[in-house]
């Protein structure tokens, strides 16, 4: 059996959980849900399935020290820092290069660093099935998440014919990847029963993803090949990345490959999943008081309901008569946001980027 | 002409402006409106009318150091600390004792420490008229504030017959003092044209207020007489207060004297006046942005309107999509309160009093 690897993508700018998250400390480095950073939980979730030396993390230079600290169980050299962000296709390509160095026949999973999955056993069973499928067939395997609502914030994939049963459940061909739909379209997807959410979790053999990159993004593949040759010639990884990475095509793996490839397959999730993309999403994972307030840190709530309050130890937040707010207090910045405007936190952070006096808060 | 004195009452618990105000730093020690503490502004407003050595401040032990610092122009011994609060009748009685020591024939004004009056010249003209009236007649003079709305938060006084003209305007007898009315009653008061707000600003001769206290609160008067004798015997003021003050009857000057006396007079205000009893009241004194937000300190407002935001220098408050909030951030506590619930901040502070872990925030 080939070696199995997992490459965790731990980039992200930490905008949606500002001011708790920052550019240098985005969501995957914070215990947004649970008691340890989301990245740490992601690594822990693989225990027993993939050995630590086969788990790599791709992050960026700003975060590399904190990321290394968050994954003490991994070999230090398994934390890779991109010199600049080049979107997910380049990260997948880099992952393929790095895994190929270790084992050209390997199969590897790409996983996001910051999703919430409580059911570790269920997750491992599905990832095991995805590994098996990728080992048996020349396919790009996506773990498809069973949708629970007509979400407009995710891309979808449509199941096609059954390829084969793995264990007691079928793996499917994927008919197509589709981008984030509008609500009406999402409702038809949900009703049809054959659409799944694309959670950005992929499994493939090195050779299969390499071939897909060569076919669908030849420029990117060429850049990756150059890096591979430099590494084979003995140049240090950081030097190779510094010289070549910024020149790679910047495109997402969905656009570059998944929407075009005709050899995409899926195994369906049978575990809880949440990408917790916002403060309201994170709040679903915490108990609320009898007025619906979710409170972390020190706070006093009076005649207040349905608020999310994230405070600090020893610094009081007092909420009086307020409803449906997000209140987040840190040492140097406090956010007060209407709950239904959480999606605008990102643009607020971008506005701060333009104000030199507040750049240090990003 | 007799000597004129002003005694400023600077007590207060600082509840309504929590968390900026604290028990040890209530409203009169803060620049709630303007650039200096309200008490400092109150003293400055008397410049030219009453000499500094004739201005006394009555405060409490917790605040005495800060109060002394806030009134550097006054002799140190003119700042008096009550060992315990005994409400305003005792403070008036203490003021009478202290002024009498300096000049038994003196006339003195009692003024609150924390009101906003921008029109200094207008205020001085009215206070001058009140002094003149108190010097000429055996009356308890109240400065009556011309009401501008049917306020239910103030007591009222009803004008009676004209006593005499002082300068170009009449002074009136007061028919009666009335407690805070309900809205319907307040509306009839406003419509009648002969009701004024009781702002707690009084002027009287030492002998006249002494006689009123003797007549209407004989127990309190007896206690005050004992203190007077002890002082005359050479005992230090602090010792006398320590021994006797806690034993004085605890009652307001309105209940004890003003509502009962038949020799109350009034001169009407002809200056702006605001007791700024809440965050919303204070916000009226600051310019608002084009969405109605009043912001002090560092803040970024996005799609936010009609908020009052009180921040700190160098610590950002970001308000996103919120309306009608009061947001006040200090080093150790942050308040987020619906604007129309500002009157409940006081009860919130009382609740914190019952929670030992937050007592240090009071």
Describe, in plain words, how this protein is organized in 3D.
The structure is a homodimer of 362-residue chains. With 362 residues, chain A is an alpha/beta fold. Chain A contains eleven helices and 15 strands. In chain A, β6 (155-166) and β7 form a beta hairpin. In chain A, strands 5-8-6-7-9 form a five-stranded mixed β-barrel. Chain A has a four-stranded mixed beta sheet with strand order 10-12-14-15. The first copy, chain A, has a two-stranded parallel sheet with strand order 11-13. In chain A, α3 runs antiparallel to α6, α3 (87-102) runs parallel beside α7 and α6 packs across α7 (218-232). The longest helix of chain A is centred in the middle third of the chain and has 17 residues, at 120-136. Chain A has two domains: 4-268, Spore Coat Polysaccharide Biosynthesis Protein SpsA, Chain A (Alpha-Beta Complex), CATH 3.90.550; 279-361, no CATH class. The mean pLDDT of chain A is 95. Chains A and B meet through β13, β14, β15 and α11 of A and β13, β14, β15 and α11 of B. β15 (333-338) of chain A pairs parallel with β13 (316-320) of chain B, so a sheet runs across the interface.
Could you give a quick summary of the protein structure above?
Chain A is of the alpha/beta class and 362 residues long. Helices cover 31% and strands 25% of the residues of chain A. Chains A and B meet through strand 13, strand 14, strand 15 and helix 11 of A and strand 13, strand 14, strand 15 and helix 11 of B.
């Amino acid at each position: 059996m080939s070696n199995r690897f997992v490459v965790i993508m731990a980039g992200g700018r930490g905008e949606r959980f500002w001011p708790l998250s920052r550019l240098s400390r985005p969501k995957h480095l914070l215990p947004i849900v649970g008691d340890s950073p989301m990245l740490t939980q992601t690594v822990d979730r693989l225990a027993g399935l993939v050995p630590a030396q086969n788990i790599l993390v791709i992050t960026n230079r700003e975060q590399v020290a904190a990321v290394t600290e968050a994954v003490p169980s991994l070999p230090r050299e398994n934390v890779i820092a991109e010199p600049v962000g080049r979107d997910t296709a380049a990260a997948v390509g880099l992952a393929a290069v790095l895994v190929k160095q270790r084992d050209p026949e390997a199969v590897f999973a790409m996983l996001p660093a910051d999703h919430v999955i409580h059911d570790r056993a269920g997750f491992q069973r599905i990832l095991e099935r995805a590994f098996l499928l990728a080992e048996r067939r020349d396919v790009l395997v996506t773990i498809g998440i069973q949708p629970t609502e007509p979400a407009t914030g995710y891309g979808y994939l449509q199941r096609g014919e059954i390829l084969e049963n793995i264990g007691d459940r079928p793996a499917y061909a994927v008919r197509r990847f589709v981008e984030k739909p509008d609500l009406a379209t999402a409702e038809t997807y949900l009703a049809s029963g054959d659409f799944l959410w694309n959670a950005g979790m992929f499994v493939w053999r090195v050779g299969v993803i390499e071939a897909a990159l060569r076919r669908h993004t030849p420029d990117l593949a060429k850049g990756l090949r150059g890096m591979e040759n430099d590494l084979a010639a003995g140049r240090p990884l950081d030097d190779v990345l510094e010289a070549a990475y910024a020149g790679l095509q910047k495109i997402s793996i969905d656009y570059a490959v998944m929407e075009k490839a005709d050899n995409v397959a899926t195994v369906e999730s049978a575990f809880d999943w949440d990408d917790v993309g916002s403060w309201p999403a994170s709040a679903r994972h915490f108990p609320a008081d009898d007025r619906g307030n979710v409170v972390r840190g020190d706070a006093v709530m009076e005649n207040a309901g349905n608020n999310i309050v994230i405070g600090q130890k020893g610094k009081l937040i007092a909420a009086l008569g307020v409803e449906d707010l997000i209140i987040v207090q840190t040492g140097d910045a406090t956010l007060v946001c209407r709950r239904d405007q959480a999606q605008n936190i990102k643009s607020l952070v971008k506005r701060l980027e333009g104000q030199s006096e507040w750049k240090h808060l990003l």
